[in-house]
Amino acid sequence: MGLHYVLGEPFGFCKHEKDTTASRKFLQEFLQDIPPPIIGPVFDKTVPNNVTGLVGRTAYLHCRVKNLGNRTVSWIRHRDIHLLTAGRYTYTSDQRFEAIHEPHSENWSLRIKYPQKKDSGIYECQISTTPPIGHPVYLTVLEPTTEILGGPELFIDQGSTINLTCLVQFAPEPPPTVGWTHEKQPINFDSPRGGISLVTEKGSTTSSRLLIQKASSSDTGYYSCDPSNANSATVRVHILNGEHPAAMHHGQGSIPLCPPIVSAMIVPFLLIFTARDL
């Protein structure tokens, strides 16, 4: 079958040749839109690389590698450039660290048992390419904190209610018990004094509220909140009997000092008076 020429086209240019040129141009543009094939292992950057852990609670650092091939994934601690794991094997004498990997999985995790605050820092998930490539993971280990709101000193009017609120945060679990002491002696909620109660609400932040009604001078002193799985916190309570809180720091009956501006006025007057006498 012979080729058919198209009217209006230059001599020697046939429809078959025009279609071939258009197809080639379309193919080139189409190939440009296709991303190049991935060569070699790469890290999945969608995996979070900021991890917050709690003292005493197992922490996991995650790393996902695609197209690993026959390479090895290792975990290295930046603080001392210490090799922790290689593949599924642990290379540190610290048995708190362990490599976690499921066969045929892209996930390579580092498990840290009983983490301490000193374990905070940068850990690197590294692939054994030439040269090696790494992906940093930042670990922050939080230590439990205990705080009595309004401290370290509170001033309470005599006859009013003492309201002490203790907050426990960042503990691996809510404290089993939260004790209170007054002048280092456990508070007796069944004492003849009466009017003493405690309300504790446990959760990610545990609150313990100590209420002492009809405060008297005998209630003055140091109060401590002692959670069973965190450090204690102390506050000093002053019971006021009509005096101003500032007077408590100088002792009762102290004479206020002259304001600086008054002293500055007296000194020139004395100098003038002395000069006249001379």
UniProtKB/TrEMBL annotation:
Domain of life, per lineage: Eukaryota
GO BP terms in the entry: synapse organization
SUPFAM superfamilies named in the record: Immunoglobulin
Cellular component terms per the entry's GO annotation: neuron projection membrane
Pfam families: Ig_3 (PF13927), V-set (PF07686)
Residue ranges constituting the Ig-like domain according to the UniProt record: 41-128, 144-236
PANTHER family to which the protein is assigned, alphabetical: DEFECTIVE PROBOSCIS EXTENSION RESPONSE 8, ISOFORM A, DEFECTIVE PROBOSCIS EXTENSION RESPONSE DPR -RELATED
Protein name: Ig-like domain-containing protein
